[in-house]
Amino acid sequence: MHTTSLPRTCLSCTNVTFFSMASIVCVACVWCILNTEMFKEVNLTVTKSHMIPIIASVVNLKLWFTPLSTIVLILSAITMFTSCCGIFGAGCKMKCAVKCYVFLVTVISCTAFWLFFVTGTYNIYSNNLPTRRYLQSTIRNYYGRENDLMSFLWDYVMVNYECCGANNYKDFDNSEWQKKNPGFSNPVQCCVLKNMTKLIPLDPNCTKLNSSTVGSFKTYGCFDALREAIKENKGTFIFYAVTSFLSYFLIISFASCIIKGGPLVNPNSWQPIKPTPPKAQSTSSLPENKEVKVVVPKRLSSRNTMYAEEPPKKVVRVISAVNPAQSYKFDTYPYRGDGVVPYRLNHQLQ
Q1: Is 346 a residue whose pLDDT tops 70?
Q2: What's the whole-number mean pLDDT along residues 239-251?
Q3: Rounded to whole angstroms, how far apart are CA atoms 306 and 103?
Q4: How many CB atoms lie under 10 A from the CB of residue 156?
Q5: 163, 156 contact by CB (below 8 A)
């Protein structure tokens, strides 16, 4: 990881994936708004999945007074815009786009973490009293509405976790659901079901007032059921939280690498271990007959140039006694380093 190519590639691939998924969700929501039945028929023909009608029904539900499809469209548009900032920032090295991407990812991640892990999981796990009261208020005010998301979620929780209400069946007293169903104490989802798909109870009278608790879960609240489920799967929630944090940290690290224009890990910080040079041995410790080789720099061709470290050149001329016409010249050679000055013989015949 000595360059920014790896962070840019990973960031681009991640954002292309999210952009594609958000585009598919956006097209599906628009299609469901325009023609839900056609969406179900076409997808059942192509994918042959039984989840398609359920997804189409959930998208058409209302959250409070707002259709869920509108909220999903807004979220998908924000996701697409964030992914575009990441793609342009990583592909074109646009620092302003990367900074915008970092800001949006931080806001989205913090909001999702707070809603899911803090508000939705930790408050239930810690038996938070305001959260319990809020769940009771949703039953009294929203449960029983037609095509309502809160009613759908409560039905799903009560059927799958075998519970009734937030605390018990008394949460339905004086609620919107009881006003529409006089003479009933709780919905059929609180009963032991013989057929969970068609909601057929074992005891037909389990939903009536003053009915026995046999064959129903009317005394067991869903808040306690969810709390027990979170305790049993505590390790799974911690794993998801840690994975989400690491994914966010990795994305921000890649983005910061592109902003600063440097590698993710600075290679200069990894200095190789330099071997310690051996200590120089003194000339006195060397054996007498060992010759030390010294690399001598070549002399320049110019006669007027002389190295400052060279000793002055000395020439000794010797005349032979046998043949006076013959002479010898000896000039000094650079020192070898051991105190011995070798000579080079120039034999010149005069």
Answers
A1: no
A2: 91
A3: 68
A4: 11
A5: no
- Cα 86 to Cα 253: distance, rounded to the nearest angstrom: 13
Range 68-76, long-range pairs (CB < 8 A, 24+ positions): 68/149, 69/29, 69/32, 69/33, 72/25, 72/29, 73/26, 73/29, 73/30, 76/22, 76/23, 76/25, 76/26, 76/29
Tens of pLDDT, residue by residue over 5-45, are: 787 888 888 899 999 999 988 888 888 888 777 777 777 67
What b-and-e string marks burial along 95-112, b requiring 16 or more CB atoms within 10 Å of the CB? eebbbbbbebbeeebeee
Instruction: Please give the structure tokens belonging to residue 105.
Output: 């990812």
Give the pTM: 0.66
Q: Which amino acid is at 267?
A: P
185-222 as b/e: b if 16+ CB within 10 A: bbbbbbbebeeeeeeebeeeebbeeebeeebbbbebbb
Cβ 216 vs Cβ 206: under 8 Å = yes
Structure tokens at 293: 């080789």
Q: What share of residues in the chain are helix, strand, coil (percent, to 5)?
A: 55, 10, 35
In the DSSP assignment, the letter for residue 63 is E
Contact of 214 with 203, CB cutoff 8 Å = yes
Closest to 171 (Cα-Cα) out of 156, 154, 159, 193: 154
Residues 6+ apart with CB under 8 A from 248: 105, 109
State phi, psi for 303 to the nearest 5 degrees.
-75, -25
Q: Could you give the C-alpha distances from 18 to 22, 126, 350, in angstroms and in order?
A: 6, 34, 96
Distances (CA, A) of 185 to 91, 117, 144, 165, 207: 61, 33, 13, 11, 6
